[in-house]
Amino acid sequence: MKSKILIISLFFFVLSACVSEKKQTPILASVENKNIYLEDFKDRAELTIRPALFKDAGDQKRLILNTLIAEKILALEAEKNINIRNNEKLAAYVTGIKEQKMRSLHYKKNALDHVKVDEQTVQKISDAAGRIYQLQHFDVSSAVNYDSLNSILQKQPQMFEQTFNSIYPGQKIPQQHIGWKDVFNTELFDALYVNRTEPGQLIGPVKRSDDRVFFFKVDSWENRVISSETEITQIKDEIGKYLQNAAAGEKYEQVVAELMAGKSIVFETQGLIPLINMLGPVLLREDSDTDFLNDPSQRMMQEVRLDSLRNSSGKFESQIVLRVNDKRWTIDKILAEMTVHPLVFRQKKFAKKEFGEQLKFALADMIRDRYLTEDAYEKGYDKDEQIQRSERLWRDYFYTVMMREQLLSQKNDGQMNDLEYLDRKVRDLRNAYKERIQINEKMLAETDIADVQLFALQKNVPFPLATPGFPLLTLDDR
User: Fold this and answer.
1) pLDDT in tens, 390-411
2) What architecture (CATH level 2) is domain 130-225?
3) How far is residue 248 from each of residues 261, 399, 439, measured CA to CA in Å?
4) pTM, to two decimals
5) Domain segments of the chain as ranges
């Protein structure tokens, strides 16, 4: 038995411009040939959660910089270690993050940079931005003949609740309050905030990216008065960005459609079913039947279990899961690809019985991204300075993580905790590197960092962390 699925749907994430064309950023410090850029210093300080002990530091900026200098020193030490340099998992992570940023640059250069926002439309939507709608809604699978449902509802809008009851007998029709920031689809956004649909009117069919089709009925709306000039300006800016990304998303669908023209995915049951049985226990939480494991903090635990699968796939490893025209994707090839491109599920919550169908969508998106990545390589985006700088940053971070563990494995003094031990080692290394460390003291003094820290995540991407975590390496704040 075979099933065919065309690669037609796309996800565009909130931090779509995670790679952007920026002016040459100043260098705050360097260790030998490794630079700490001012922009990266601020990102590491503000877009990750700094350890609690940093609050007690006499000079927090200095401690942050000393920690990042220690990271570069440990990365240089790690480069001397053949086991770390040749670690395939580490290389795959770095490659995966680099390729994700290349796809983001592909989106920017081929879509985002080519769209402009109509200021009159921004103003019109901003005028209605205070509207909070009360909606009734239901959804059906795209496999259902939703065109006939739409035909009935358009002729007889009063049949909305009766139609729902016929599809979901004994259930209560879902209702929700929704503001402009909550809208998941440009068609729904246009209906509510451009066309300003009134109570009693229907909206739909609205097809979501996970192939669920929605019908909405507007019960009522209320207006939240926005009087602050600062908030009005902020809303207009946010709406302008929303519209730009929405227009870029539509343009990018055309770009991807051209790239994928003539290509389709055919799933092979003989390989798909074993893969479902292998991945289900790894990717689904054991304590819930509705929550897909997509928490970055759990990614390493998940990877350990995936490694076990790769090592024990046995007789199934050569089974074909899918074909893209004449190209075959076997279980072992898919598991290998998942190292550089962890699966991203379109729905973050679903019943366990739906896992097989959701896995097919995730695999289709992974294959689509592989073609986008190849096109990005052909366009030379891997040579972009921002891409290369990010690649070096993440490699240094992973090298440091491994070097840190290696140093701790050598600790045998029970009187000293891990951080004290690392601090001593780092001080010794820093002394050895002191002639190769340069710091722009004037730039450091003039640089402010925010007191409020953010934990920045990108949505719907294989590697959601926007910047590497903050390593605990030293106590030195001088």
Assistant:
1) 999 999 999 999 999 999 888 8
2) Roll (3.10)
3) 20, 37, 41
4) 0.82
5) 27-100+381-446, 130-225
